[in-house]
Design brief:
- The chain has a single domain, classed as 2,3-Dihydroxybiphenyl 1,2-Dioxygenase, domain 1.
- It has four helices and ten strands.
Length: 184
């Protein structure tokens, strides 16, 4: 099964990077990798998010852009609150952070990761979006983010993907924001 933007609903469709400056990173990813156009959200503090078992307080600036069917997520921490992003920055600096893995069997996959000994480092549970970060850096070059594949996620990311294709006149329509955020 696939999302309307062509990526699998049971596999990797996203790569996430922690960046020092979102605007500079967008310029570099666009120029060097032909990613974009971008959908950006500033001062994002997702409701229903948690970090290491406690309510999360971190605020982020986030950008989403496509190159083909691969979604790139750029994340700039906007404060010093603890998060899975600050954790990685402190350990090794900015750069690759996670693989975004879509799943139609979210609860089963979370249980499988836990059974394999992986702790849920962070996540979000709100209507229309559930995701969970697992620290898989012992076997992979980054964390694994499980993202429940549902209609809201499909609609949001398909809108961003369609914007990356552009319109006949060269102008891309603005895509809807992903369901995972509440911006101030």
């Amino acid at each position: 099964m696939q999302f309307d933007f062509g990526a699998p609903t049971d596999g990797i469709f996203q790569t996430g990077f922690i960046v020092e400056d979102l605007d500079t990173a967008i310029e570099q990813f666009s120029a060097r990798l032909r990613v974009g156009p971008w959908t950006t959200m500033r001062d994002v503090s997702p409701q229903g998010s948690f970090y290491r078992g406690e309510p999360a307080q971190a605020t982020l600036h986030v950008g989403f852009g496509f190159a083909g069917h691969m979604l790139y997520e750029l994340i700039q921490p906007a404060d010093d609150h603890p998060s899975v992003y600050r954790e990685v920055i402190q350990e090794r600096g900015y750069g690759f952070h996670h693989f975004g893995y879509a799943t139609t069997t979210f609860d089963d996959d979370v249980a499988t990761m836990r059974a394999q000994g992986y702790e849920m480092a962070a996540g979000i549970e709100i209507p229309d979006l559930r995701l969970a970060y697992f620290d898989t850096r012992d076997v992979l070059p980054g964390m694994t983010e499980l993202i429940e594949a549902n209609e809201a996620v499909n609609a949001s990311f398909t809108g961003i993907w369609k914007a990356s294709l552009g319109a006949a006149d060269g102008a891309a329509p603005p895509p809807p924001a992903p369901p995972s955020t509440t911006a101030s």
